[in-house]
Structure formats: structure tokens, C-alpha cells
């Protein structure tokens, strides 16, 4: 046991003393935010401004097509239609000409059939859909007038129904659309982070084992410690590194949410109607404040506890597999035939968990969070929505038992494989090592 502790300490200190670890740990949250901002700016930079001239023979659309910063409608006389089309090619200041035919006997089907958009260059799909939507809105208003329905009556008919949801299982808290969105977002983030870190740090263990095996350093180490102790020391050492990063990131996230939450009360008081329609009245900073408030209303101690427990158990489970793979092969090329067995179940659990957003208490969510191969990501995906205590306890128990069993199997493979050279490992060969 003392040897496992010493190897764990060495692995942990070796990793955390690196400058790359310190920089990545402190800057990773900022890098994620910056990455999101860059993606947003890329979409913004790719936006186009289109100028469309409109020839309206029907007289129905005059001043009815709204222009904005993305799309500008310019109405031109009907007599200039042919000359405009003939000079359109090569006209860099004009993107297209919208030709709206005459409206005879209020036959809107003929209007749609004969409407044309002559373009000078390729226009985006969004722009085309915007033009279609603008024309459809004008036609819709005209049809409403023919039916004798007033605009106020139509607005009343289109008025959406707001349903307040009270959750008796959560002390009669109101479960708003924003709260559901926050839970869904948190669920996806935690699930994806767990999935990525299990794979990233698991591969790190595998490469560390493989490197020591190829350098023959392991032959010297094995003379002082048992193979099982070396394997467990490596796994636990890297586990502590990952846990340290998570604790720092969780602390930074909670502090950020608390800072943003300080202004939530004053924002509520200054907004008419308070929570009703609040999202449409707030700017980006205030929306972030409200989101942070919704996050702090969740059962954060339970979420953090479940996240850490399932991440650690899931990581140890899969790292045992990666350690066994690293000991059984001689180079990274050979690892590819075995890593699929580690990645596939976890990937199945992650993509299966996307369906949990609509029904976190459904049968799929239950079984994915009980099966040890998928529970490290599935239970974390469910926990923001609330999970019965007995299900959490049962899932942890099953995962603990299976993790110890996987460590036992990996230890038998590691003990033989770490000193095997030039012998290509196969599933049949691995089974022989386990049996013996």
C-alpha cells in the first residue's frame, strides 16, 4: 500500500509542477469563453448585406417589405424592369431584382407561381428564406383583410399561452423555461467534460505505461514494486491531477456565479413585470446574471458530489482498461485495435444521454445510468434534473463493484503484459493471461 502511495505522489507532483498544467488549469475556463466568443464573431463576420431591388406590378408590397442591416429593399418603377435586368450582371452594388407580378382577382396562387428573383451573384439560404418570409407576411395580412378580421383580433388569436410549472418534489419551486434551459445546458456541459476527460487522461495513462515499457524503465521499477502497485499508482496519480483541475474550475465557476448573482435582486425590481418576458428585456450581462441565479438555485452540493464521484469511478474504471492496453502492446499503432472497446461504450452512453433532456426519468435514462459502462456520463447528465437518492446509491454501488472487478482483470493483464516484448497481443492471448 505504501508503494502505491509513493507512486501516486510521484505521478501527481510530476504533472502539477509542470508550467503547462498551471497555465492550462487557470486559463482553460477563459479559453473556453474566448473560443465561444471567437465562434460568435466568425458567424458575425460571415454575415452579408444584400441589396434587392423590387419591381412590384401588384402594388400590394409597396412599403410593406421591411429593410434592415442585413437586407435592404429598394422599390423601382415597373417601367425600369427590363433595363434593370439587362444591367444587373456585373453590378457590384446590387445583388438581385425581385419581380412581383400583377395580382388578378386576388389569385395569390398565380402571384406565387409568377414571382421571380433574378440574382447577380449567389445569395445565402437565410437571405432567400427571409425574402420568402417577408412576402408571405404581406400576403397573410392581405388575406386577413379580405376575411374582415381586425389586426387586434389577429394579435389576440396569435397570443401564446404561458404555463407555469410548479414542482412539488423541489419545494414547490416554479420550473420556468429558463430554468429548464439552464438544467439542459449544465447537463450537456458536465456530460461532455466527463466524457472528454476520461478519454484524455485515460490515454495519458496508456501512453505513460507504453513509454516506460518501450524504454525498459519498467524492468527496473518492477524489481522494487509489484506490477499491480505500479499500475494503481499511475492511475491514482493522474486521477488526483484531474480532480485538482476540476476543484479549481468548480471553485472559479461558483465564484463567478455568486458575483453575477449579486445584481439579480436589483434587476428584478427595476424590470416591469419582473420574470414575465424578462429574457426579452435584458441585455447580455443581465441575462448572464439571471442564468447564474438559476444555477445557484439548483442543488449544487449534490450535483458536485455526484459529478466528482462518477467522474472518479468512471475514470478509474476506464483508466484500468487503458493501462491494460498499454501494457499489452509494443507501440501506439497496436493500441487502435483495443481502444475501441474503451471508447465505444462511453460514446454510446454520451449520445444516448442526449435523449434524456426531454425525459430524464424515462426507461432509457434509468438503464443508461445504471449500467456501469455508461453510468459515468448518463448519471451526470440526469443529475441537474433531479434523481431519486436510491437510484444514485444503486448506480454508485454497481459502478464501485464493476470498477474493482475491472481493476482486478486489468491487473492480471498488466502483470504479464508489462514484461512481454515482440509478442503481438490478441484477444485470445489476453484471455489466456487473465485465466492464468
Description:
With 436 residues, this protein is mostly helical. The protein is 67% helix and 6% strand. It contains 18 helices and six strands. The strands form two sheets. The chain has a four-stranded mixed β-sheet with strand order 2-1-3-4. Strands 5-6 form a two-stranded antiparallel ribbon. Helix 7 runs antiparallel to helix 16 and helix 15 packs across helix 16. The radius of gyration is 31 Å and the shape is elongated. The protein starts with a helix and ends with a helix. About 5% of the residues have low confidence.
List the helices and strands and how they pair.
Blueprint: H1 2-16, H2 19-45, E1 50-56, E2 71-76, H3 81-86, E3 96-100, H4 108-114, E4 116-119, H5 125-147, H6 151-158, E5 166-167, E6 173-174, H7 177-214, H8 217-222, H9 227-261, H10 264-270, H11 278-281, H12 284-296, H13 300-328, H14 332-353, H15 363-370, H16 375-382, H17 389-417, H18 427-435
Parallel strand pairs: 1-2, 1-3
Antiparallel strand pairs: 3-4, 5-6
Helix pairs in contact: 1-9, 7-9, 7-13, 7-14, 7-16, 9-12, 9-13, 9-17, 13-14, 13-16, 13-17, 14-16, 15-16
Summarize the structure.
The chain is built from 18 helices and 6 strands. Strands 2-1-3-4 form a 4-stranded mixed sheet. Strands 5-6 form a two-stranded antiparallel sheet.
